[in-house]
Specification:
Blueprint lengths: L3 E4 L16 H14 L4 E4 L5 H4 L5 H10 L6 E4 L2 E3 L3 H20 L5 E4 L21 H11 L6 E5 L6 H7 L5 E8 L17 E6 L5 H19 L3 E6 L16 H18 L4 E5 L5 H17 L1
Helix pairs in contact: 1-9, 4-5, 7-8, 8-9
The structure holds zinc ion.
The site of zinc ion has 7 residues, from loops.
């Protein structure tokens, strides 16, 4: 079975502002790297997320307020680094729709492993608050769809973006059926994700200091995250795949290379094969150096493909 990849050109239409790091060229860099470096992928069109699926995470008044705020021209600033342009909601709805559809297709047995090449990212969006370049909590909504439709009850989310996934944690921190595992740099935006934040025993936060050697990041991933993932025995694993822990990334100070993301991906797949019938849905989050982002996403997808 070839690896399914969900994307859509509408996601190029979100313009967060001049010289904003979360730029349309990010998606182009990822898509080009995958088309050139991984021929034969099963490219699929990301649908728009349905309101009732978003409502599993975001109250309808929040979605309605975003739709009302969307400008016909120019930009509306939601917080110092999160803005709406005329193309933002179609983009964000496709991003969430991609992850939701990938989960549903997993449930239908169409594929075990898939990747969503999407923007804007989602893991900072809280149920009633857009922040950190994120509008909808795409991965969280997809987890809720998996549960509601009987695709999987016990679901794990592995977030290796260099920033803490505060939005995902906010959705699940009191739900023992969902395990949230995050490795991120501290101190760094958004400032949450201390290892003392453990939810109801279902949240694991591992933190690396600025300029941590790659070996430390790997050790934390291997010793803090993977044993918890295995012990939880999830029926489905979602990955918040941010590539901003790369050494070249301008928004953080980690030292990873593309091969580290491939290594982490293989570790997740090992658990998926043992526990979850090999079922993994991965979704792009951050990554702001275009060259590093393309290479890292390709390394991740090639590792996923081996699964
Ligand atoms: Zn990030």
């Amino acid at each position: 079975m070839s690896l399914a990849v969900y994307s859509h050109p509408d996601m190029l239409g979100h313009d967060a502002g001049h010289a904003h790091p979360e730029q349309p060229a990010r998606l182009t860099a990822v898509v080009d790297a995958l088309r050139d470096g991984a021929p034969g992928l099963d490219w699929r069109e990301a649908p728009l997320a349905a309101r009732e699926d978003l409502a599993r995470v975001h109250p309808d008044r929040y979605v309605e307020a975003l739709l009302q705020a969307a400008p016909r021209e120019g930009r509306v600033q939601l917080d110092p680094d999160t803005a709406l342009s005329p193309g933002s909601l179609p983009a964000a709805l496709r991003a969430a729709g991609a992850v939701i559809e990938a989960v549903r297709a997993t449930g239908r047995g169409e594929h075990a492993v898939s990747f969503c090449a999407v923007r804007p990212p989602g893991h900072h969006a809280e149920p009633e608050r857009a922040m950190g370049f994120c509008l909808f909590s795409s991965v969280a909504a997809a987890v809720r769809v998996a549960q509601a439709e009987g695709i999987a009850q016990r679901v794990a989310v592995v977030d290796f973006d260099v920033h803490h996934g505060n939005g995902t944690q906010a959705v699940f921190e009191s739900d023992p059926d969902v395990l949230f595992l995050s490795i991120h740099q501290a101190p760094l935006y958004p400032g949450t994700g201390d290892p003392s934040e453990t939810g109801v025993g279902n949240v694991v936060n591992a933190t690396a200091p600025p300029n941590a050697p790659r070996e430390l990041w790997r050790r934390l991933f291997e010793t803090r995250l993977m044993p918890e993932l295995d012990a939880f025995a999830p029926e489905l694993i979602l990955v918040s795949a941010g590539f901003d822990a790369h050494a070249r990334d301008p928004l953080a100070q980690q030292q990873l290379e593309g091969e580290d993301f491939a290594w982490a991906t293989r570790a997740i797949l090992d658990v998926a094969r043992a526990r979850a019938g090999g079922r993994v849905v991965s979704s792009l989050e951050g990554g702001y150096d275009l060259q590093a982002l393309g290479r890292s996403a390709l390394a991740h997808v090639q590792a996923l493909r081996e699964g």
